[in-house]
Write a structure and sequence with these properties.
Keywords: ATP-binding, Ligase, Nucleotide-binding, Protein biosynthesis, Transferase. This protein is mainly alpha-helical and 99 residues long. It is 38% helix and 4% strand. The radius of gyration is 30 Å and the shape is elongated.
């Protein structure tokens, strides 16, 4: 028995402000009906005693601890740069940006 009718799809299309043809309404009605049938099969499965697995990864926000390490001085970093201006890396302008 069909759970979704052409009129149901037309109503949903109006709510979503979609303009659908009669062929699309009929096609979507069949597709949505098939989806609901599959969902019904899934809901019918007996899951008694099955532990939920909403997230198989139990650890959250796993990060390494921050460690202070020596870094290059500004002059050392800029020494290998093809172009530097006022202590910063200089790169070509893009997309017509002005200074």
């Amino acid at each position: 028995m069909s759970q979704i009718s052409r009129d149901d799809v037309a109503h949903l299309a109006r709510l979503a402000r979609l303009s659908l043809t009669d062929g699309e309404l009929m096609s979507f009605a069949g597709q949505l009906d098939a989806i609901l049938a599959h969902v019904g099969q899934i809901q019918a499965v007996d899951v008694t005693g099955v532990e939920t697995t909403d997230n198989p990864l139990k650890e959250l926000n796993v990060t390494r601890p921050d460690t202070v390490l020596p870094s290059l001085a500004q002059d050392e970093a800029l020494a290998a740069a093809p172009n530097a201006v006022d202590g910063r890396f200089a790169v070509p302008r893009i997309l017509g940006e002005s200074e």
